[in-house]
Amino acid sequence: MGELNIAPLSSWGLPDKRPLIISGPCSAESEEQVIETAQRLADKGIDVLRAGIWKPRTRPGSFEGLGKIALPWLKKAGAIIGKPIAVEVATREHVFDCLKAGVDILWIGARTTANPFSVQEIADALEGVDIPVIVKNPVNPDLQLWIGALERINRAGITKIGALHRGFSSYDKSKYRNKPMWEFPIELKRLYPNLPLFNDPSHICGNREHLASVAQKALDLDFDGLMLESHRDPDNAWSDASQQVTPEGLGEIVKGLVIRNADPNIVANRLDELRSQIDRIDNYILEILVDRMDIVEKIGEFKRDNNITILQSGRWDEIVHDRVQKGLKKGLTEDFIKDLFEAVHQESIRHQTKVMNA
Ligand code: PEP
Ligand code: MN
């Protein structure tokens, strides 16, 4: 695993608060729109003003952003409300234009993170520059690709790097536009505990309904900040209309967040006690699994000696139904029980395959 040389979030020149809030329109549409949105956002608890200037769109013909003429509007809006500004970059020219315009923070969008050539081009353009860069997760659920992009930017000398979780594109749309798959940012945080980590409820949700609950979930998972799209007139936004909120709506979301900032020393004792109970139960689970595998191997020997295939799909189907029914009655979710027993079953097959071919 490559090392990342990560500067602390406190060095970014932002207020010393959590969560940091980045907000502003999906796209800059006019000078008035950017300035009005910013002014209405000023007292809503935001720390950074965002706007898209270049928009990578799935299909041609959608609004692709106004380009660099919009940079001075954003700069002016930031100056009026006294907040730094953040812009998405996808090419070398975007980086140069942003640096020239005095943009404070850059971010790399999900479609760009998925392309190492583009990320490298951006990294090369940043050589010798000291600016915070936030890397969104790639559109596809590939942690290595996300880490690879962070490494490329970091190797160009950018130490003020952060990651932004915006969910993953999937065929079935379910309740989210982009599935959160929280296990990815959780694993990233396990690997790089010091990496500043942001969440983007807007692009995860694709609608307004679940923004607050996704934002809260991110805070409960110890994220450092949130990026939320806001627009003076969301219904008529030129891009991502259905997920944007008014600045006042944004203010309500921010106000409603529960900040879990208890002094860790005070809660440590009780937490330690409960965690030691969890450790004990986990050890118990491990021992039980080993016992289960011992029996699985005996069955494997029997199957081997009697020429029976490892997979008996009728029996497996019976197990899934039975365990799901029992688990549901005990308040566990169907997804969890299925995932758990699929994992157990895979491991059983591995054990029996070894026995069979010994
Ligand atoms: C955006 O932030 O407006 C954007 C294009 O996001 P993403 O790269 O996550 O799709
Ligand atoms: Mn958007």
Description:
By secondary structure, the chain is an alpha/beta fold. The protein has 2 domains: 248 residues, TIM Barrel (Alpha-Beta Barrel), CATH 3.20.20; 93 residues, Chorismate Mutase Domain, subunit A. It has 13 helices and 8 strands. An 8-stranded parallel beta barrel has the order 1-2-3-4-5-6-7-8, surrounded by 7 helices. The radius of gyration is 24 Å and the shape is elongated. Helix content is 49%, strand content 9%. Helix 3 links the parallel strand 3 and strand 4. The mean pLDDT is 95. Bound molecules: phosphoenolpyruvate (PEP) and manganese (II) ion. The site of phosphoenolpyruvate has 9 residues, from loops. Phosphoenolpyruvate binds next to loops.
Helix and strand element order:
EHEHEHEHHEHEHEHHEHHHH
Give the biggest beta sheet: 8 strands, parallel, barrel
Cofactors and ligands present? phosphoenolpyruvate, manganese (II) ion
Give start-end ranges of low-pLDDT stretches: none
Terminal CA distance = 34 Å
Shape, principal axes of CA atoms: elongated
What is the CATH class designation of the largest domain?
Alpha Beta
Lay out the secondary structure:
Layout: E1 20-24, H1 31-41, E2 48-50, H2 71-81, E3 85-89, H3 92-101, E4 105-108, H4 110-113, H5 116-126, E5 133-136, H6 143-155, E6 161-165, H7 183-191, E7 197-199, H8 201-205, H9 211-220, E8 225-229, H10 247-256, H11 264-305, H12 313-329, H13 334-356
Parallel strand pairs: 1-2, 1-8, 2-3, 3-4, 4-5, 5-6, 6-7, 7-8
Helix pairs in contact: 1-2, 1-10, 3-5, 5-6, 11-13, 12-13
The protein binds phosphoenolpyruvate and manganese (II) ion.
